[in-house]
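Structure ticket #2291
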Amino acid sequence: MDFDVGARLRELRAAAGLSQRELATRAGVPHGLIATVEQNKSSPSVASLRKILDGLAVNFVDFFSAEAPQQDKVFFEKAELIDLTSIIPGAMKSKKGRITFKQVGDARAHNLQILHEIYEPGADTGKAMLAHASKEGGVVISGLLEITVGQSVRVLKAGEAYLFDSQTPHRFRNVGSEPCEVVSACTPPYL
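Resolution: structure written out below.
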């Protein structure tokens, strides 16, 4: 997918009336990061892009989507799920495995993000723990998923679930030899 991340970021920053330095301060990232991303000299990690977008009060779907999903839609075919993986460059791809995220409908309109997630064997959200202002939970449908929340670590198997305050640093990792499937929810939406 040919999406010009730098041009889109520059467009949104300019529309918000912010300098690169002002956006960097709001987002809590180095000024140089904004400049290199806007010039397409670097591809930010998901965590860094999330911080930058938080500084603009924009979510991933709004950043990468040309059009918003229908807000009044109730039922969704498998093909109608929004593939967040394909719109986020390098989305949660570790050296060992990929994580796929598919969203149900317009998360922003409902203030609820429902995701169908697939973690390939070895997939890992990264050693840098995630943290964001949300609550999240999910159910493991198949496979094994190691979840770290703060100092607590547990491997969940099919039928087991999790629920926590997302402000607590957390990490997800497939420690099994088969893909792991999860259905999760997050409010307010994170991605």
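Closing remark: The radius of gyration is 17 Å.
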